Every structure is written in C-alpha cells, then in structure tokens.
Amino acid sequence: KTTYPAPSFPCDMWAFGCLLLEALAGRKLFRTGEIIQKDQSILTHVEILLQETRSQQSTENNTSNISSECTDSTQFDQFRDLLAKCLTKCPGERISAAEALLHS
After folding, report:
1. Considering Cα of 24, then 28, then 30, then 31, what sign does the dihedral take?
2. Considering the entire predicted model, what is its pTM?
3. Measured between alpha carbons, how far is 33 from 14 in angstroms, rounded to an integer?
4. Tens digits of residue pLDDT in 65-92
5. In Å, how far from its chain's centre is CA 103?
6. Which of 41, 89, 91, 100 could form a disulfide with 10 if both were Cys (CB 3.0 to 4.6 A apart)?
C-alpha cells in the first residue's frame, strides 16, 4: 500500500503560488504531458513563464491577463519574489500564509 504525507500548509502555499502564476499568465503552469527535466528547477520553469507572459503583455498593448499594477517593474519584481517564496523547493522554507499577507 502506498502512503502519502498528510497535506500541510507548505503544500498549500505551493499550490497558492501555482494558482497565482496561472491567474497572471492566463494558462496552466504545466501543459498536459509536459515534463520538467530533473536538472531544471521549477523556478527556472516559472521564470520562463513569467518572461513569456511579460513579453506577451508588452506586445499585445495591455490586452493580456496582466493587470496594470503588475506591469510596473517594482510590482512585477515583488510578484516574482512572492512566487519564489511560495515555490521554494524545501517545504519548511516556504513562506507562510501570514507572511504572504504581509509581503510587499
């Protein structure tokens, strides 16, 4: 019988980070059947998606899913930082929900 670890708040923050990115990009974080190579970190994948989304926004003249607040460089950097803290590989080092609410 296979056993799985109990759900925990760090797992919830991982899921929250994925949902934030999907909301920003307007698409799923991982395409069906997409495999992330072991040597490629999840944050590298996230960074690529962020850059694609930002490039798309600048070429589509504000018609993408990115809100005007997130097109500002400072806001975008803060969003990227929050994502990195949600998607930290080690669950014990991920940002907590309380810390995320205070993130700036």
Report:
1. negative
2. 0.66
3. 20
4. 555 555 567 888 888 899 889 988 788 8
5. 15
6. 91
